[in-house]
Structures are given as C-alpha cells and as structure tokens.
Amino acid sequence: VIELKNAAKYYNMGENIVKALDGVDIKIEEGDFVAIMGPSGSGKSTGMNLAGSLDHTTKGEVYLDGENIALLEESELAQIRGKKIGFIFQQFNLIPNLTAKENVMLPMLFQNTLEEEREERAEELLRLLGLSDRESHYPNELSGGQQQRVAIARSLANNPEVILADEPTGNLDSKSAQQVLELFRNLNKENGQTFVLVSHNPKHSEIADRVANLIDGQIESDRNPSGS
Amino acid sequence: VIELKNAAKYYNMGENIVKALDGVDIKIEEGDFVAIMGPSGSGKSTGMNLAGSLDHTTKGEVYLDGENIALLEESELAQIRGKKIGFIFQQFNLIPNLTAKENVMLPMLFQNTLEEEREERAEELLRLLGLSDRESHYPNELSGGQQQRVAIARSLANNPEVILADEPTGNLDSKSAQQVLELFRNLNKENGQTFVLVSHNPKHSEIADRVANLIDGQIESDRNPSGS
Ligand SMILES: Nc1ncnc2c1ncn2[C@@H]1O[C@H](COP(=O)(O)OP(=O)(O)OP(=O)(O)O)[C@@H](O)[C@H]1O
Ligand SMILES: Nc1ncnc2c1ncn2[C@@H]1O[C@H](COP(=O)(O)OP(=O)(O)OP(=O)(O)O)[C@@H](O)[C@H]1O
Ligand SMILES: [Mg+2]
Ligand SMILES: [Mg+2]
C-alpha cells in the first residue's frame, strides 16, 4: 500500500543540516497494523508526512499502491490521498471555524457523497468516539482529548484504505485510549483497513502485528512483537 | 499558595449549559506535588486555567497566596502571575515567530533580568531538557515533543513558586518523560517549588505526594497515594 525506499528528509539550518529522516526503508502491506516507536525527535512525524505524501523527500522515493508519488500531478495526488489515506495529526489540525461535526464531514465533501450521507456518517463517527453531545462545539470549545477524538473521527470519514495515526491517544485517559485502540483493531480485522500508529505508549506496540523502532531518523528494527 | 473555593465554570451553549467545572474545592500548599487525574473532558484544563488566574470563575473564588484574585486589578494580577506561576499548556502555546531560546527568554523580560542573565538561563534550561542543539529552531521546525520541552523550559524561566503543568509529557517517549518528572521532583525537593500536574499517565500519580481525581467537573477524591 505504502512504501518508503531510502527515504530521507533534510533541513538546511544555515550552519548545519538537520537530518529529520535519514534513509528509511519500510513497506506497509494491505491489512497491516504497524506501530512506529521512537524517542522524541527521532523522525516519526516526518516519516508519516512523507508516507502520506504530505511532504516531499530530500532523497529516496515514496510509493503509494506501487506508484512513485513524485511522478503524480499534485491535483491527482491530492485526489488519491483524500480517498485512500486518513490522517490523525499529532496536533490535530482541526479547522477552527468549523464545528466538530463539520470538521468530520469535510473530507467527504471531495468524494461526491450526499449531504445527508455526510451528516449521518459524521454523527455515527462522533458517537463511536463518545462525542455525540459535542457535535456543535468549535475546537476551542473542546478539551484537548475531545479535539483529538474529533481528529480521529475525521480520519475515518472516507473509510480510507490506510490510516496514518500520529500519536492518536496522547491526550486521552487510559479508558478512552483503550476504546480508540479497540476501534482501530476492529476496523483492521473487519474492514481490512491498514493502520500505521506512531506512539510513545508501549501498549500500542503490544496490540500491533508489527513494531518498527526509529532512532535518529533511521529504522533500527522492524519485527513482529510475538517473534513469529 | 493556590486555593479554589466552590469554583465552577459554565458555558452557555444556547440550548444547554456545559458545566466544565462544577463546584471544586482544592487547596494547594507550598511545596506540594499534586497530580490531577481524570477522564478526557472532566475539567482538568479548566481547573488549571482558573487556578492560574487565566480565566474567571462562573461561581466560587480563587485565592492566590490568600488573596481573592477577583479583587485584583488585571495588570496587578498579570504581574503577580508572571512572577509566581509557571504554566505548561496542554497545547504548548509557543510563540510561532520566536525561536526556542526566545520563547524561553520571554517570561523573564517582564521581571527586570539582564539580557545576559536571560540568555544564560534560557540556554541552561534548554540544556536540561536536551534541546541545546535546537535553540535557534522556530516551533514549526521542532517535533511535537521538542515543542513540549520548550514549553516546559519556558515555565521554569522565572523560577516560579508554583508550576501548573497540563499534561507535560503527553508527547514524550518514556525516557524523556522520566527525565522531565525527575527534574520536577528535584526542583520540588531542592527549591521547594510547588507542582500541580494534570496527567493521564498513572506513573505521574505514583510520584506525586497527593492525587486528586476529577470526574464531570467535580473532585471525587483527594488523597495521598501512600495512604498516609
Ligand atoms: N469554551 C468552551 N465552551 C464550551 N464548552 C467547553 C469550553 N471549554 C471546555 N468546554 C467543555 O468543558 C469540559 C471540560 O473541558 P477541559 O478542557 O477542562 O477538560 P480536560 O479534563 O482538560 O480534558 P482533556 O483531558 O481531554 O484535556 C469539556 O467537556 C469541554 O467540552
Ligand atoms: N521544518 C524543520 N526544520 C528543521 N528541523 C526540523 C523540521 N521539522 C522537524 N525537524 C527536526 O527533525 C527531527 C525529527 O522531527 P519529527 O517531528 O519527525 O520527530 P518525532 O519523532 O515526530 O518527534 P516527537 O515524538 O517529539 O513528535 C527533530 O529533531 C526536529 O527538530
Ligand atoms: Mg511527532
Ligand atoms: Mg485538558
């Protein structure tokens, strides 16, 4: 589904080069449930942005369903991305002047769904995330964890093939976090949706089929926790 | 140091009233190390904002060093707050057009410290948080956890009497989180600085002297974990 080949992202800071990601090879297959772990600053969000074609590599390639995304028109890429990939950003990136429900409906706008369908699906997703009574709140009228849950609902709006979740439960209490992880695992089992989870929470690596460890912009290990 | 008396915060959402905090009594003494736990949406950030005089109560009072803050001039309150209280916000609130170092120096500006002192202290704090090599990065050139650590450094800039930390390690890997908590405990022991930590991480309640549990805007329990 998504593949990074020797992917690197460098930033020129004048005196020195910051190597956010430094030659990463990783292949995400359909139906995978992968956890990406690593210290703060190790390159996880950078890797996610590259994998989700939200950013361009400095070196190496990113393949989406076998296609090198560097060869796609931006508009074509945006269309594919909107349809196939759901994002949960580390800092939510909710639209401040849209309510929780409108934020969840937004991705569906570009996928030719009817207004009524969009409303129903948004309501259903917010219900799944325990936010039925917060539909009409704006982001600044929501707690941190509620904003995070709206971001999660939004990422599922188009039933995407792959969900890239950058620390999806960092602002949630353990009970809410548990519910979110169970939701992800069910969608993975029942719908075959692919999940890539960046997290600092060791529990997330336990429920994943596969754990990749990122250190200083490079993958140190990439294996199945159960050892098989 | 800080006391909330029957403190409540209500939001009028047209059809209904949202009770973010609903009659909270809590007294934070000098040298305390308190953890505030509770589900997402239970009122923790609201309570912290009221305690830090960043917001006004709908009912009840907030006392800072024995003074009812509602009786203070806004300018007077701002001065006291800048001197006595250090904040770590759940969403960091770094100034986007200031570098990491400038963000840390900012609180000191209003406390009559010399430029050189401000620089040295900011560098020292960033060093303590493992960010010496990121001093000149702007917030959007920092990872989530690095931004969080800059926010932590900033909160300590004026050596405040009390640090109000709203989920200070949510974006940190366990090793960095551990270092931050050890730093807090040392400052508490050696400097007598008071810490109020909001967190979802059970580990934080383990290291605290006192744990208060917030449910639906009210304190359910407030005790010393060791039972004494
Ligand atoms: N400006 C506002 N208008 C309306 N409702 C609000 C507003 N701010 C907060 N709330 C509501 O008040 C409740 C408490 O919010 P608060 O941010 O204090 O929760 P919290 O315990 O910090 O949650 P979290 O752990 O998710 O950060 C939430 O249910 C939230 O929806
Ligand atoms: N725009 C940028 N300019 C310069 N350096 C950057 C930029 N973006 C990221 N970096 C650096 O690249 C490194 C990797 O950043 P990234 O956000 O991918 O880390 P992360 O693993 O997601 O960290 P965290 O767990 O703290 O969120 C960091 O050291 C960061 O300082
Ligand atoms: Mg990150
Ligand atoms: Mg909060």
Could you please describe the fold and organization of this structure?
- The structure is a homodimer of 228-residue chains.
- With 228 residues, chain A is α/β, with parallel strands linked by helices.
- In chain A, 35% of the residues lie in helices and 27% in strands.
- In chain A, the strands form 2 sheets. A 6-stranded mixed beta sheet of chain A has the order 6-7-8-3-9-10, with helices on both faces. In chain A, strands 2-1-4-5 form a 4-stranded antiparallel beta sheet.
- Chains A and B meet through helix 5 and helix 6 of A and helix 5 and helix 6 of B.
- The complex binds adenosine-5'-triphosphate (ATP) (2 copies) and magnesium ion (2 copies).
- One adenosine-5'-triphosphate sits at the interface of chains B and A.
**What is the C-alpha radius of gyration of chain A, as a whole number of Å?**
17 Å
Globular, elongated, flat, extended or rod-shaped: what is the shape of chain A? globular
Ligand identities: adenosine-5'-triphosphate, magnesium ion
Largest sheet of chain A: 6 strands, mixed
Characteristic terms for this protein:
homodimer; 228 residues; alpha/beta; 6-stranded mixed sheet; 4-stranded antiparallel sheet; 10 strands; 27% strand; binds adenosine-5'-triphosphate; binds magnesium ion
